[in-house]
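Structure (tokenized):
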């Protein structure tokens, strides 16, 4: 099996805990230790210490390209004798769409698997999915671990009335990236996802019930997509803020160094600033496209709701 088309359930987290921020990857592992191993004594600070992370990463997002984090996750996996599998969340609108594929990256080797999903730069522990091990997590375990909440993500299903459901492109095939930078999203116009035109395809007396059910499914799916996109937009905003901080720090180095820095070092820093600015621009463009998509889906939900109201009269 290369991919799974069904939905999946996660334990939600905001990335912030115990005074730390942008720690969703480590919080996902912490949730596993607390809810599956029932070790409610472990703290995020202790988990980071096991990974060997210092105060310089207190508010730094996990990035697979940063060896500090790679080594930290490996140390944690070895310490607890667990295997941490990271899966991309990929939402497609085509008939052969899939959502969760095989792990994009694995840390540690063990029969005890800790499945984690990556929503762009945000991570959550997968409780169940159909392709990952179902974790034996009870309501009591969630309560004891800190009143945690779970969320069910439902994949988009193609219907004859909504055959223009928007797509999110799959992640790049060349390995996992801690910072997900997808290509341009094709944003449909409200008319292309407005099911009102489909009413003429049905006998209004005999097929209203079926059409209403399909419209309701479409509304639910669009709401799930909006929630998913808003989470990605939030993650992009965090990434933008972090990259801008990095730009400022490099600009400050150039400013404070005056003429004391050699030409090669200055050129390298300037190249890094240029690259970071390009990344920020891409994130801004992606967020703009996603915001347009959210707006169009909200209009589609309103149109479907109005149509349902007409059909039930």
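Design, position by position:
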């Amino acid at each position: 099996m290369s991919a799974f088309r069904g939905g999946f359930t996660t334990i939600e987290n905001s990335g912030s805990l115990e005074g730390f921020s942008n720690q969703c990857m480590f919080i996902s592992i912490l949730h596993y230790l607390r809810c599956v191993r029932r070790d409610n004594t472990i703290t995020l600070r202790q988990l980071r210490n096991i990974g060997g992370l210092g105060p310089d990463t207190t508010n730094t997002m996990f990035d697979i390209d940063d060896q500090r984090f790679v080594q930290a996750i490996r140390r944690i996996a070895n310490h607890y004798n667990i295997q941490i599998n990271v899966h991309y969340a990929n939402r497609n609108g085509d008939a052969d769409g899939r959502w969760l594929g095989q792990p994009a990256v694995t840390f540690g080797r063990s029969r005890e698997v800790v499945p984690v999903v990556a929503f762009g730069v945000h991570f959550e522990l997968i409780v169940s999915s159909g392709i990952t091990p179902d974790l034996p997590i009870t309501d009591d375990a969630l309560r004891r671990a800190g009143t945690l909440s779970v969320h069910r993500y439902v994949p988009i299903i193609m219907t004859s009335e909504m055959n223009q459901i928007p797509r999110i492109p799959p992640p790049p095939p060349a390995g996992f990236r801690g910072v997900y930078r997808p290509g341009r999203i094709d944003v449909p116009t409200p008319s292309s996802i407005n099911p009102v035109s489909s009413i003429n395809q049905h006998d209004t007396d005999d097929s209203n019930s079926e059409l209403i059910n399909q419209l309701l499914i479409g509304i639910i799916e669009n709401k799930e997509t909006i929630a998913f996109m808003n989470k990605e937009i939030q993650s992009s905003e965090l990434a933008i803020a972090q990259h801008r901080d990095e730009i400022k720090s490099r600009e400050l180095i150039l400013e404070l160094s005056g003429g004391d820095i050699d030409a090669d070092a200055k050129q390298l820093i300037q190249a890094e600033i240029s690259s970071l600015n390009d990344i920020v621009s891409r994130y801004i463009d992606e967020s703009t496209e996603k915001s347009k998509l959210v707006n169009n889906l909200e209009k589609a939900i309103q149109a479907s709701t109005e149509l349902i109201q007409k059909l039930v009269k």
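Reviewer-requested clarification: Strands lie at 3-4, 8-11, 83-88, 100-101, 105-107, 113-119, 122-128, 150-153. The chain has a mean pLDDT of 75.
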